[in-house]
Amino acid sequence: MKSALEIAMEKSDAISKTKSLSKTQKEEIAEIRNIAKTKVAQEELQLAETIKKFGNMPEAFSEIESARENLVTVKGRIERDMEERIGKVKNG
User: Fold this and answer.
1) Where would you tag: which of 12, 20, 22, 34 has the fewest CB atoms within 10 A of its CB?
2) Which pLDDT score, from 0 to 100, does residue 51 have?
């Protein structure tokens, strides 16, 4: 069984062996992350508007829960898309 130190050293070696990113790649990755963050914020605003629209109406509980579930799904899709795009930038 490996100690925590051995595992940390292996991770450190793996990180140091990876190629460093160019300034352009770093900028592209930052832009991809900003776009994803903006998309998530838009989705969160839509949820907030849905909640505000229905207020405390008990009969609207299912609508609000559906919107929350949709937000989780959309966030996951945005994150996967972001990671895929970042991977393409890193791998050239």
Assistant:
1) 20
2) 87
